[in-house]
Structure formats: C-alpha cells, structure tokens
Amino acid sequence: MSDMRLPFPLVEDPDDASRERGRKLFAGEVDFLKGVVAMSGLPPDDRIEVCFAGRSNVGKSSLINAVTGRKALARASNTPGRTQEINFFTVGDDRYLVDLPGYGYANAPVNVVEKWQALLKQYLSGRASLRRAFVLIDSRHGIKPVDDEIMTLLDKSAVTFQVVLTKSDKIKPSQHDAVLDQVREKLSKHPAAFPELISTSSEKGDGIATLRAVIAGIT
C-alpha cells in the first residue's frame, strides 16, 4: 500500500523511463577521481554533485558499490573512521558522486576528528554545485543523536538532504514501520530534509534502481 499521505513517504518505484535513465547513468564511465583532505584540493565545481554521508559501519561503501555496479569502487573498511578523505568519483561527463568520511566513531584521535569536521563544514557550506546530500541511516537503529548533528549541519548549510535507509533486509517486516515512524518524527525537525525516503539493501539489491533513478533525475 502506498504511504504517500504520510509525512516523508517512501519514494515510489521509478517508471520505466526513469529507471532506464538511472541504469544508463551508472552503466557508463564511473571512476575514482581523487581524495581530498583540504578545501584547496577540491576539483572544480563545474558539474552536478551529490554526496553520501553516514555513520561508520552504516554500509556506505557497500551502497556506493551497489549503486555504481562496481564491486570495489568505494573501499569498505573494517576499521570505523579510517577514511579521512572526501573521495570524489566522476559519473559520466557531468556528475560527481562524493563519498564523505564516516562520522560518529570513537576510535580516531580527537585532533583528527576535529580536522575532518572542520573540512566537512567548509565543504557543505561552500560547494555551489552540491545538489543533494544522501544521509544513510541503518534500518536496524534509526536516527541516532550523531545523525541529528549532521542533519543540523546540513540545515545550517542550506543543503537539501535525503535519508536513505540501509540494510533493510536485516530487520523483520514488523519492525519496519517502527523505524519509519522514528525517522519521520526526527526529520520533521529538519527544514533541509527532502520529503521522501529511500529504503535499500545493498546485499539484496532492494531500492538500488530507485536510488539510481533519483540521482539521475537531479538537475
């Protein structure tokens, strides 16, 4: 049953044309461009840009690999918070897909965390070509306080963000509604939140075509 009457409904399945546009976008060239550790290293903001943000171990690398159809494009690490760079990938001739460092980890040194937080704030507030941030939320846990912090930063930076639920195959169908209720309640406090949710499973492939179609439709 469609839940379009609810606040923050799940995105409806794409029509054939949108699905094909998303498939074609990621069937073309997708390449790692560079890892950036300072604003001076950012590539020119001359193309449409979307970024992926999420807590460590939320399944971000797996989702990026699933969306792009590349098994090892984004390197999954067993050490939360190991990636301290903003990683840029080119998608075709006119898009960047940007992988932000995982946040909310306790193992990294304080000065390292502070340095990347400062870079993240600069990037989010100063990137004119950034059209949307996808904030990944683990379906098993819902929105945690650290997720709220990044969403507040996106609000302040006036960057539209859309929640993507990951690992939807890891919870029972009966738990799904409770997670959606919690996410919707939290998002109601964030003015920059995009009004539709995407539910995905990188392992099963659920929602991947939908996410591709959404990215392809951003102009």
Automatic annotation (TrEMBL):
InterPro entries reported in the protein's UniProt record: G_ENGB_dom, GTP-bd, GTP-bd_ribosome_bio_YsxC, P-loop_NTPase
Cofactor(s) required, per the database record: Mg(2+)
Gene Ontology MF annotations: GTP binding; metal ion binding
GO CC terms of this entry: cytosol
Record bears the keyword Disulfide bond: no
Gene3D superfamilies: P-loop containing nucleotide triphosphate hydrolases (3.40.50.300)
Function, as annotated: Necessary for normal cell division and for the maintenance of normal septation.
Name of the protein this chain belongs to: Probable GTP-binding protein EngB
